[in-house]
């Protein structure tokens, strides 16, 4: 494994990060999970009542 000592961390430009975040937000919830605890969608698929 190569050492990262002395290496500058590369991050995408701020605009790219913002765009990626805006595209991610809709994936974090849906009408089926609104108002429910995190993981509710997976629990529903497994027929587990929360």
Characterization of this structure:
The protein is mainly α. Helix content is 34%, strand content 0%. The protein is built from 2 helices and no strands. The protein has helices at 14-24, 40-45. The radius of gyration is 18 Å and the shape is elongated. The relative contact order is 0.09.
Distance between the termini: 44 Å
SSE succession:
HH
Largest sheet: none
The secondary structure category is: mainly alpha
Shape annotation: elongated
Number of helices: 2
Q: Flag low-confidence runs.
A: none
* Rg on CA atoms, Å: 18 Å
How much helicity do the residues have? Answer: 25-40%
Strand content: under 5%
Indicate the mean pLDDT: 74
What's the count of strands?
Answer: 0
